[in-house]
Task: structure prediction
Amino acid sequence: MSERERKRRILVIDDSASIHQDFRRLLCPERRGSPAELALLRTALFGAAPARAEPSGPEFEVDSAYQGQEGVAKVREAMAAGRPYALVFLDYRMPPGGNGVETLRHLWTVHPSQRVVLCSAYSDYSWEEIVAEFGETPLLHELRKPVPSHELRHLALTLTEP
Result:
């Protein structure tokens, strides 16, 4: 199994580029093993780097979509390629396009067993309304922004376990 195949695949569907950067920063921390020349140059310029703890645990591959339709298309493509996403983080609000609940309806048409975390600081729907429509299911979770980094990583680890 290649390194690419071992990584847990996550799709972030959100209209904010900074959110995508935050997810990558939190879920894909820099690992040691940078090229030797770069390490030597860094030491020459800045001195010896302090020892850092090596990120532990499984690695994630984070993909991005900035609107719901784009996200549904990426899920469809991933399924067709035999490389489905382990988890989708889906924003409730994505102006000017469709909202997260509309996207979820289409997404589950394409991949009915896709795990999804609805996340936003705002919601046009209560959790009770969402459960009334989609039912109580272990495939659907809610996460409110701002998200503590440890909580995001824990949720990603837990929900992408094979």
About this structure: Helices lie at 3-6, 17-27, 36-46, 68-80, 100-110, 127-134, 149-159. Residues 96 and 108 are 22 Å apart (CA to CA). The mean pLDDT is 86. DSSP finds seven helices and five strands in the chain.
